[in-house]
Amino acid sequence: MPTATRWSRCRRRGRRKLIAATLPDIVSTPVNKAEGLNDPSLLEPADWEEFRAEAHRALDVALNFVRDRPQEAAWEETPPGLKVTDKELPVHGQPLGEVVNAVQRDVLPYTLGNTHPRFWGWVNGSGTPSGVISQAFVGAINANMGGRDHSPMYIERQLLAWMRQLFSYPEDASGLICTGTSYATLLALAVARQHALGESVREQGNGGAALVAYCSEQAHVSVSKAMEILGLGSRALRSVPVRPDFTLDHAALDAMIRSDVALGMKPFAVISCVGAVNTGAIDELEIIGQICRENGLWHHVDGAFGALIVLSPELRHRLAGIEHADSIAFDFHKWMHVTYAAACVLIRDGELHRRSFATSHAYLQGESRGVAAGAPWPCDYGIDLSRGFAALGIWMLLNEMGTKRLGEAIYRNCRQAAWLGQQVDSMKQLQRLAPVSLNIVCFRFAPAGLSRQQLNRINRHIVVTLHCDGIAVPSFTELAGETAIRVCIANHRTRLDDLQALLDAVIEIGARLMTAGLEGEEFDVSTH
Ligand SMILES: *Cc1c(COP(=O)(O)O)cnc(C)c1O
């Protein structure tokens, strides 16, 4: 018998004995029916009806969470006992019901709050109840969206065709559903690099080419990260000054391009902001596109949240010129409220996109029939081979709501921001720090007689207090050195009463801090 042979060999070589004793050779040991290789319930329920009852209870827990979250605090800190990472790795499992209980007890009460009506921090989507259902189907199907011929691939393709249609892109433009605008921008700039350096860049790398790109100083950090990852370096990303409305100053852009060319640099791309992260400013796409065409540069649009105003008939005119851009990156998980993570990149030149990522490995070769058919495969348009089925949640939400309701939710947030801006302007103690151009309001508590430093400290303290007391979640940012309370309304659950509550709380906390300050405290928030 093979095992016996092996044993004797091991006895002769004393050192390997232990290995042979503890690791029976799984290939050569005769298979015994009593091993349970016919047992269907290894990772499946032993009793489907019992499992179904547990699953229905879990679904109720999830739905109740979505329904009741607005009545809870906007945020509650995770207790210290749950911030630990020293729990034992589970070796023996437990019934699903126990695991659901743990989620209900330890996770649900301490979530970020972005499903709450008073969450306006950073840019977060607020999800929808039906997201619970699409996630269930994603789990049921467990599609791998790298390629091959199966119905989920046609859902993603339909979705991309709809996106082309929304942005008036040509039919041979390509796209990919991906995890975020950071990822989408990285892909787009990789294609832009290939556009500038030719196909040889895939084999030879950048080869010291002095490529430079341009974006406004208000652009998102993901643009600079993409430059780093592409091996071009963040210094090769020129920061173009903005005008008083925080949009890119295109006269300055034009001058910077000329000066770089004179210095022997090779400008290759301009990244426009549609919805700059601090203020919501929308760069002038027509003019920037014109500058790009004149100089042979790639025009990429970072429309992470802003590009979705394409869904609103009242707002979409502000995207004029986006249809000429070479690429567009945007998120579904922000202002369209699709469950994280779901984003999209569109590339006007679909063939260049494919040539920037396609590979030809034997084990990934396609066929004209069977499971290996269905070309072209998404894995030839990006980095991932295995990909999740985010497209389903987007497709289901579009089918459920239609573009009309989703666009209304976006428009409503802009009107709410306008209202908030008007309220701020009407209140003596408050000061607006940027124009309200979309869904973001930047303002501060600004009583007379405080220095800039004191104003900055007191406003940071106000935001932290709003969080810690669970009242609301704005974030803060800096505009020309001034700390602003930043309210980004990408939340379909927000009502005017919520924004009124925010204003009342800011005034109340500010007044309290002023009194404390008069008693000698220096609004010191350094301890937070
Ligand atoms: C959020 C955001 C990004 C990054 O998108 P992710 O989906 O978080 O990767 C890029 N640009 C802007 C303007 C954003 O708001």
Strand order of the largest sheet: 2-8-7-6-5-3-4
CATH class of the largest domain: Alpha Beta
Main sheet characteristics: 7 strands, mixed
Strand content: 5-15%
Instruction: Name every ligand kind in the structure.
Output: pyridoxal-5'-phosphate
Question: What do the pLDDT scores average to?
Answer: 93
Q: Can you tell me the overall shape? A: globular
**N-to-C span:** 69 Å
Order of helices and strands: HHHHEHHEHHEHEHEHEEEHHEEHEEH
Low-confidence regions: 1-11
Task: Give a structural overview.
Helices cover 41% and strands 12% of the residues. The protein is globular. It starts with a helix and ends in a 10-residue tail after the last helix. The protein has helices spanning 2-12, 17-22, 48-68, 96-107, 129-141, 151-166, 181-197, 201-204, 221-229, 250-262, 285-295, 350-357, 390-426, 452-468, 496-518; strands spanning 119-120, 174-178, 211-216, 237-240, 266-273, 298-302, 327-331, 343-347, 430-432, 440-445, 473-479, 482-488.
